[in-house]
UniProtKB/TrEMBL annotation:
Segment forming the signal sequence: 1-31
Organism classification: Bacteria, Bacillati, Actinomycetota, Actinomycetes, Micromonosporales
Keywords: Signal
Protein name in UniProt: Phage tail lysozyme domain-containing protein
Organism: Actinocatenispora thailandica
Annotated Gene3D superfamilies: 1.10.530.10
Domain Phage tail lysozyme: residue ranges: 64-200
């Protein structure tokens, strides 16, 4: 089941009090099981299915979002810049590290890295190699890989992201340089980012 951007914001509003109670918690709530979940890439797929075909609870999604937000703030990004990343990841995967692209497409994980590319084959720049035998579906590993790519390859736009002074600018910087999406649906990404900022930046 896939929810629209408006429904996604309603979920965040309903769970914001619980999310704020988790402030400072960096550990992910869901690390995956090594199996992929099938969703539509870039759909803002909150409420998708977990590997055992049960609904992914909004509370788990919220905890994954907060863990990711805290992670990037901990790396020195501003709250606005971190929210910009979260808005993009929400649109790509609903912050579920086990997500697979719907219909057999190549997208995998929170950033929908492509199988046959940045997921498993690009020399020196792929999740599988970075994992070094670890669980590629682990949320913390995927966050670490995003940071590895941002800090290792200038083309992925860390400079543009760090120069972004607003949430909207941060969303667009990460969207254009890191996600390099086709039909990006920037409005959804921006809405998700503002909702994340409102929930976690306090």
């Amino acid at each position: 089941m896939f929810r629209s951007g408006k429904a996604r914001i309603a979920i965040l509003a309903a769970t914001a009090a619980g999310a704020l109670a988790l402030a400072g918690t960096a550990a992910p709530a869901y690390a995956g099981t090594g199996q992929g979940t099938t969703v539509t890439a870039g759909s803002g797929s909150h409420g998708g299915m977990s590997p055992n075909n049960s609904p992914v609870a909004p509370s788990v999604i919220t905890q994954n979002e907060q863990a990711a937000f805290n992670y990037f703030v901990g790396k020195g990004l501003t709250a606005e810049q971190s929210a910009g990343i979260i808005g993009n990841l929400d649109q790509e995967s609903g912050m579920d590290p086990t997500i697979w692209q719907y219909g057999g497409g190549p997208g995998r994980g929170i950033a929908q890295w492509s199988a046959g590319g940045r997921w498993d084959t690009d020399p020196g720049d792929n999740v599988a190699e970075f994992a070094a035998g670890g669980n590629v579906y682990d949320l913390t590993l995927q966050l670490n890989f995003i940071w590895f790519e941002l800090t290792s390859f200038p083309g992925y736009g860390l400079g543009d992201l760090q120069a972004a002074g607003t949430i909207d600018d941060a969303v667009l910087a990460f969207q254009d340089k890191y996600e390099i999406c086709g039909a990006c649906n920037s409005t959804n990404r921006i809405n998700f980012a503002h909702a994340a900022y409102d929930a976690y930046a306090g």
